[in-house]
Amino acid sequence: MGRILVVDDEPGLRGMLEVVLRRDGHQVILAANGQEALAQLAADPQIEVMMSDLRMEPIDGLALLAQARAKHPDVFVIIMTAFAEWDTAVRAMRVGAYNFLKKPFDNNVVRTLVGRAIAAREHHLAAKAAGESQAAVHFVGASKPLQDIQRLIEQVSTTDSTVLVTGESGTGKELVARALHYASLRSDGPMVRINSGALTPSLLESELFGHVKGAFTGAIEDRPGLFALADGGTLFLDEVGELAVETQAKLLRVLEAGEYLPVGGRDVRTCNVRVVAATNRDLRLLIKAGTFREDLYYRLAVIPVHLPPLRERSEDVPLLAGHLLARHAVRMRRGVTGFTQPALAAMMAYRWP
């Protein structure tokens, strides 16, 4: 069990969380504001998780998060937020909060999220003690956009929030998804990929959520879906803009509550999966057209990552070309060591995706 610091200026809420957490065997410390919380963190190095409200004075939740991350980076932070504070909660995730709780709370969600935060922290400390580098996937290139993406991936490595990767086809969105997975606290878990645009809505739902025996013709046995197979890891949902509206509602339920129904089933299943979604379409335009849910968009785009096309970062072309040349020269046993200047100039001038 863990040692939890609860920070909120409402005595009733602090007391309620104390009761819920102590019933699970956690040690609970209470603070009425940000100043008290910082004092507790400085005095008690055994604190593992801090649960903090956003709206407090004189130090608000974002300022407390920033100071806690700077001075006590091994303390995992859960932000408590009302729906009206959604934008601020998203900003908190982007600067390193592990996850968030939306008010009013479900006690089971509180217990589950705190348990995950403690487990994730243990994984983080073990990797840190072993000297493991969390960035297992590196990008080839030195342009500012690529460096910014690499820094963002490292910055959010200890968060558990959803990520939306946008960019044209061929820009490397799946590579970003892999980098996010292997830099995360879920790197020991599975990474499962599915292309939403390649399947019919009914088949996609069966692939995502599984089905029970007899759900449809040919369903001769129970079959787990990708959310079950990705449990403890990451699900990369490519071409998320192609999802049918009915499937969007079911995906939203997974993101909000971590639960789903297999096709043809009646028993609710639960999962612990981080979703990284990708699209080459403008989801805001789809929202205006009424073909994509706005609430799902905000759930997916907690951490947005835009991958610019190679033509907008031409300084990366020589490095990427040299990397590919060296790899294929070894594979094909050729002694090619470089490009002529005209060849490089042609590659630099080409309008790459």
What can you tell me about this protein's structure?
This protein is α/β, with parallel strands linked by helices and 353 residues long. It folds into three domains: 3-129, Response regulator (Rossmann fold, 3-Layer(aba) Sandwich), CATH 3.40.50.2300; 144-308, Rossmann fold; 311-349. 44% of the residues lie in helices and 15% in strands. It has 14 helices and twelve strands. It has helices at 11-23, 34-43, 61-71, 86-94, 107-129, 144-155, 173-183, 201-209, 226-229, 245-257, 283-289, 294-300, 317-332, 341-349; strands spanning 3-7, 27-31, 49-53, 76-81, 99-102, 163-166, 191-195, 234-238, 259-260, 269-270, 274-279, 303-306. Helix 2 (34-43) runs parallel beside helix 3 (61-71) and helix 10 crosses helix 12. The model has no long low-confidence stretch (mean pLDDT 90).
Features:
single chain; 353 residues; alpha/beta; Rossmann fold; 3 domains; 5-stranded parallel β-sheet; 12 strands; 15% strand; globular
Draw up the topology in text:
Blueprint (H helix, E strand, L loop, with lengths): L2 E5 L3 H13 L3 E5 L2 H10 L5 E5 L7 H11 L4 E6 L4 H9 L4 E4 L4 H23 L14 H12 L7 E4 L6 H11 L7 E5 L5 H9 L16 H4 L4 E5 L6 H13 L1 E2 L8 E2 L3 E6 L3 H7 L4 H7 L2 E4 L10 H16 L8 H9 L4
Helix pairs in contact: 2-3, 10-12
Largest sheet, spatial ordering of strands = 2-1-3-4-5
Distance between the amino and carboxyl termini = 50 Å
CATH topology of the largest domain: Rossmann fold
Task: Please name the fourth-level CATH homologous superfamily of the largest domain.
Answer: P-loop containing nucleotide triphosphate hydrolases
Total helical elements = 14
Name the helix and strand elements from N-terminus to C-terminus, one letter apiece: EHEHEHEHEHHEHEHHEHEEEHHEHH
Major sheet, described briefly? 5 strands, parallel
What are the low-pLDDT stretches, counting only 5+ consecutive residues below 50? none
Shape: globular
Average pLDDT over all residues: 90
Annotated CATH architecture of the largest domain: 3-Layer(aba) Sandwich
CATH class of the largest domain: Alpha Beta
Class computed from helices, strands and strand pairing: alpha/beta
Q: Helicity level, as a percent range?
A: 40-55%
Residues in β-strands, percent: 15-25%
